Amino acid sequence: MTAFNACGVNLGMDVTDAPLTIVGPVNVTSPNGGEVLFAGSIETVTWTAYPNAATYFLRYSIDGGSTWTLIDTVVEETSYNWTVPDEHSTTSLFRVTARDADNVWLARDESDTVFTIQNVQVVTPNSGENWNAGDQVALQWDAPPNAVNFFVRLSTDGGDTWTLIDTVSNATQMPWTVPNVDSGNCLIRVSARDAGNAWIGKDESDAAFTIKPLPLAVTSPSGGDTLAAGRTQTVTWTAPPNAVNFFLRYSTDGGDTWTLIDTVVGVNSYNWAVPNVTSTSSMFRVNARDAGNAWIGQDDSGIFTITPLPLAVVSPDGGETLNVGTTHTVSWTAPPTAATFFLRYSTDDGDTWTLIDTITTNTDEYNWTVPDTGSAISRFRVTARDAGNVWLSKDQSDATFTIAP
Fold it and tell me: Distance (Å, rounded) from C-alpha 209 to C-alpha 98?
């Protein structure tokens, strides 16, 4: 050391009595800036040793050094296998602090520049979307390359509870039919695991999104449809999630009067046996009530047409073998205006006919005692008249049947 006065005059010099050792600082060597680390992976963090250092305190920051989280405390080591945490950050830093055996602070160092921790990230929905129940949407997320299996969940209460939607592999999106719920506090969560099922991380929507429930609405039949009497028609409707009890009705006079079909619980469809009526002003109605029987609402279809059943032999209609003396139930369909039916049979393929009976009750079947007249070319005929005895139509077996002796 050399000393000078204010005028620059050399006052003297001195040197140490013994050699000095210049000690280098503790230095973080990895990660030291620019790296991309994957959540859930094991990374070897390293640093240079500090003389007399006995303990190293390892910390990381995901906010550029504003706050720090302790990873671990190690003794006389210069490396550590760090399981990268369940975080996502582009401003991450790693810090090593050295203390001696008496816990006296010696030195510390941090990554020279920030590095990235890449984790699974929800992309859609992530910003307050408004979706309707029944919408077809794509749930999307980003993920580190070590992520293989993804567990996708929905919360409708801001994250208090979660319901599994699906588990997908090797994909970063999935199609989803938005469920019929009513909530403005919905979130999507995606959790990721690697090929060995080790946990990687999870992420949730940054902001809650909204699902609007389905309205009460008849979806089938629609206005302009034509339904055939006697056929089974699947009637369908949508309903809000609180609707439990449904009262189903139909009208044949444009809604002036209604007839109850049935009452069903917790379903959105019903197999309806279309009545045998003639109407060009038919409608279908659904009324909804909740579990406490409180009224929710009703909806009607547009006007549709019901075509009546034709007069048609059902049995025997050809190919049967009936034994003499046995009882066979002959049956037919008929339009709603039919009041009287004349039943006949032929054993000569329709050249001549024998009256079986005349029926004036509202029925479409008759127990016929097969006559003692063997024939391989028999047929059955029904003729209908209305209440004023006006002839309507007739029909016979499509093919011959056999009367066996």
Answer: 47
Dist. CA 211–CA 130, nearest whole Å: 6
Which residues have a Cβ under 8 Å from the Cβ of 328 and sit 6 or more positions away?
Answer: 315, 316, 322, 367, 368, 370
28-118 CATH choice from 2.60.40.10, 1.10.287.110, 3.20.20.140, 3.40.50.720 = 2.60.40.10
Q: Is the pTM of this model over 0.90?
A: no
Computed over its alpha carbons, how large is the radius of gyration of the chain? 43
Q: What is the pLDDT along the chain (405 residues), one digit of tens a residue?
A: 666 666 666 666 665 565 544 445 799 999 999 999 998 889 999 999 999 999 999 999 999 999 999 999 999 899 999 999 989 899 999 999 999 999 999 999 999 999 999 999 999 999 899 999 999 999 999 999 889 999 999 999 999 999 999 999 999 999 999 999 999 999 999 999 999 999 999 999 999 999 999 999 999 999 999 999 989 999 999 999 999 999 999 999 999 999 999 999 999 999 999 999 999 999 999 999 999 999 999 999 999 999 999 999 999 999 999 999 999 999 999 999 999 999 999 999 999 999 999 999 888 999 999 999 999 999 999 999 999 999 999 999 999 999 999
Which of these CATH numbers, 1.10.10.10, 2.60.40.10, 3.60.10.10, 3.90.1150.180, describes 312-404?
2.60.40.10
